[in-house]
Amino acid sequence: MSVNYDTLAADYVSYRVPDPRIEAAIRRHISPGDSILNVGAGQGAYEPDGFNVVALEPSREMIARRSSKKAPTIQGMAERLPFKDDSFDTALGVLTLHHWQDIQQGLSELKRVTRGKIILLTWNGDYGEFWLPDYLPEIAVIDVGLFPSIGALSELLGGAVSVETIAIPHDCTDGFMCAYWRRPEMYLDASARQAMSMFSMLGSVEEGLIQLSDDLEAGYWHKKYQSLLGKDQLDCGYRLVVCNK
Ligand SMILES: C[S@@+](CC[C@H](N)C(=O)[O-])C[C@H]1O[C@@H](n2cnc3c(N)ncnc32)[C@H](O)[C@@H]1O
């Protein structure tokens, strides 16, 4: 199932602001002076400043909306990286590999062009207490089909692989799928939904969103998911997978 990022690019600018806590978790794996390839770079979220970064991104519109301060960008795909072997110290891919046409080929390319670490933010197939699939069950079916399991991913990466839980803060600034777990009304915001690729893959969401809206108005949502309201962060299945080649 492929997503046309050219049509999502406009709402990304406002709703996909990199979250500083997720940024810090990624930065801990990057060493001073590293040269970095950011694959599926989008508009440059999580690209570390002050490093020698090259970005690679297939969508023309995502590239067009990158700030001029961001790294130089090459239009291309993970499956065919236009770089020589061992060109970079580190490769970074944030919430991108589930969109690739051929994950195995893309990872093989990342391994070819990277000397040191491959850092991937991905999802482990388990939403935990994230509740939106209760209203839109198709979400879980689609995501489970798109994301490789952490075991399969580790095997494809080979080498020494570490896996770190990235819990999502209740006020996460980056509006990806589970970001609004404690702000349910955000899923009723059409522009916020437009910045999440999942909503371009779903069939009709009307019924589920009307139910959510009704439940919020009636106070049922707050009653049913009360246990979430006192939490500051939630494990929704996001994992930082780091491979040391
Ligand atoms: C969810 S966005 C993430 C963008 C950025 N990394 C971020 O964190 O904001 C996924 C990105 O992967 C890109 N993408 C899709 N297919 C790809 C492929 N085969 N190779 C590389 N990037 C791809 C999309 O164009 C999109 O920009």
TrEMBL record:
Residues 38-115 form the Methyltransferase type domain. One of its GO terms (biological process) is methylation. CDD domains: AdoMet_MTases. Signal peptide: none annotated. It holds the Pfam family Methyltransf_11. Coiled coil: none annotated. InterPro entries: Methyltransf_11, Methyltransf_Superfamily, SAM-dependent_MTases_sf. The keyword Methyltransferase applies. Gene3D superfamilies: Vaccinia Virus protein VP39 (3.40.50.150). PANTHER family: METHYLTRANSFERASE, N6-ADENOSINE-METHYLTRANSFERASE TMT1A. This is Class I SAM-dependent methyltransferase.
